[in-house]
């Protein structure tokens, strides 16, 4: 922008569009990611950061903000401008229409690209034929965590999680029924919206996440998922 207008760069602007943010995002993984994103300007651009705009902020975000703002210093918090609308007059005045992204009402075409999971990773795409299943295996250390996000392209899917101690899970030929039920197999109706959950302080062992389409006689499912697991760490706790 500065080069295009042959003018000095006066400051950086961060914009967070929370359109679609809902109760399903109220989990440790998502809050941790938001805290990291908000702190980028503070840690990387402490002098040049001019404003942080939060657009389409729903009422329930106020509770999340109470946690997120704990990682920001007072100087950065004063730069945050929040609105429940899709645009703010100050942002419109600061950014010319030809460099404002089109999804914010500007004229600059932007290809957002792949849908990104809340942990920062891209989703894995899987085609599940009718009367078939898909399994994802995750190794979790003692006291560790397991998180998942998934959605389907306009279709439902059954989902369940099973625990196997030590090496009792050999491979995908091992029936999940021989494991301990962590999340009972049930149909997810969140068509197109993410199903998100993070389990913490888990027993060490193997966890099998089952996506079940055996109940569909003719309809295949297009699944997108992201699985995260590992040892618990201090940065999983967001300051209040």
From TrEMBL:
This is CRAL-TRIO domain-containing protein. Gene3D superfamilies: CRAL-TRIO lipid binding domain, GOLD domain. InterPro entries: CRAL-TRIO_dom, CRAL-TRIO_dom_sf, GOLD_dom, GOLD_dom_sf, SEC14/CRAL-TRIO_domain. Pfam families: CRAL_TRIO. Residues 84-229 form the GOLD domain. SUPFAM superfamilies: CRAL/TRIO domain, Supernatant protein factor (SPF), C-terminal domain. Residues 1-112 form the CRAL-TRIO domain.
């Amino acid at each position: 922008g500065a080069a295009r207008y042959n003018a000095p760069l006066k400051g950086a602007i961060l914009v967070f569009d929370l359109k679609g943010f809902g109760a399903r995002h109220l989990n440790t993984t998502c809050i941790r990611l938001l805290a990291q994103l908000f702190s980028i300007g503070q840690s990387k651009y402490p002098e040049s950061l001019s404003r942080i705009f939060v657009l389409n902020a729903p009422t329930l975000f106020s509770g999340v903000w109470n946690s997120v703002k704990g990682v920001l210093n007072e100087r950065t918090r004063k730069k945050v401008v929040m609105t429940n609308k899709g645009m703010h007059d100050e942002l419109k005045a600061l950014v010319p229409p030809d460099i404002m992204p089109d999804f914010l009402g500007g004229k600059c075409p932007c290809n957002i690209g792949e849908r990104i999971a809340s942990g920062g990773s891209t989703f894995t795409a899987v085609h599940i034929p009718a009367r078939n299943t898909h399994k994802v295996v995750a190794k979790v250390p003692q006291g560790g965590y397991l998180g998942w996000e998934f959605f389907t392209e306009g279709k439902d899917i059954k989902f369940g999680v099973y625990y196997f101690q030590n090496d009792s899970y050999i491979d995908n030929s091992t029936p999940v029924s021989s494991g301990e039920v962590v999340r009972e197999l049930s149909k997810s109706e969140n068509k197109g919206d993410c199903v998100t959950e993070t389990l913490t302080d888990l027993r060490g062992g193997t966890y099998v996440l089952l996506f079940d389409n055996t109940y569909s006689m003719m309809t295949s499912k297009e699944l997108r998922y992201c699985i995260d697991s590992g040892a618990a760490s201090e940065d999983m706790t967001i300051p209040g």
